[in-house]
Amino acid sequence: MGSNLRDIVKKECQKKGISLSKLAIILKVNHVYLFGVLAGRKVSRPLIRRLAEVLDLPNLPSQYELFLKHRKNKSEKRTKTKTKPIKEVEK
What we know:
By secondary structure, the chain is mostly helical. It has a single domain, classed as 434 Repressor (Amino-terminal Domain) (Orthogonal Bundle). The protein has helices at 5-16, 20-27, 31-39, 45-55, 60-82.
């Protein structure tokens, strides 16, 4: 995805003349939660579907799935390189 999820949503909000905080109110979610989903710290497919409806972005759910897949692959690579075997503790 060329732009990150937050940029896509923010750009569409600007077109409609609303802030991300106002969008959170429209969606009836806490703005911190919305920001977390858009930043990839939290996962919420239902919220992304609602965002797609409110902002008229029909491709947003599929873009979100790609975003999650990319995030997962990135996380797995990071885990593989940093993980060390755990030594057993003798009793």
